Amino acid sequence: MAKYWFKSNVFARLSEIVEADSEKEVMDKIRNQKSFEIKQEVLNVYPSSIEIRKIKEKKEKNNMELKETVELMNSVDYKDRFIAEYHQVKIRYEKLKNFCNKIEVETMLGKEETKHDCPLGLLREQQEYMGLYLSVLEKRALIENVEL
Predict the structure, then answer these.
(1) pLDDT score for 44
(2) Nearest to 92 by CA among 71, 115, 111, 66
(3) Where are the beta strands (DSSP E) in the chain?
(4) pLDDT tens, residue by residue, 70-122
(5) Could you say which DSSP state residue 15 is in?
(6) What's the pLDDT score for residue 25?
(7) Which residues lie across from 51 on neighbouring strands?
(8) Radius of gyration (Cα) for the chain, nearest Å?
(9) Do residues 83 and 146 make contact, with C-beta atoms less than 8 angstroms apart?
(10) Residues 55, 5: contact at Cβ < 8 Å?
(11) In sequence order, what are the beta bridge partners of 52?
(12) Predicted TM-score (pTM) of this structure
């Protein structure tokens, strides 16, 4: 069953993730008010517009791109900045790991290696330290009750 996100623009901005097979099923749930946390009768309003978007399933819960961390990084809340820092390091770590793996596979297969100026050993050392840093951030998140 696919997951859809719907947002209803009313005075109280209602938004919720709904599991449904189609957008039609999401609309039916909205009409039947099965998925609203707040009933429309209580609000005495009707949605002025409804946005429905299918959520792409991702390998990881919080798989984001570097550009998506900018807003969190500029937050006044240190927890948001902490989350942004974690995701930035994780994104860079994964890219470095994939790059190193690609070089190793090309070497093993006897193919021409992707251009890189830095020795692979030094790149792997950087990857190792980045991994350790991620581990420290994850432990700190547990201590400080920050959901990454």
Answers:
(1) 46
(2) 66
(3) 2-8, 14-20, 50-55
(4) 888 998 999 999 999 999 999 999 999 999 999 999 998 999 988 999 999 99
(5) E
(6) 72
(7) 7
(8) 22
(9) yes
(10) yes
(11) 6
(12) 0.58
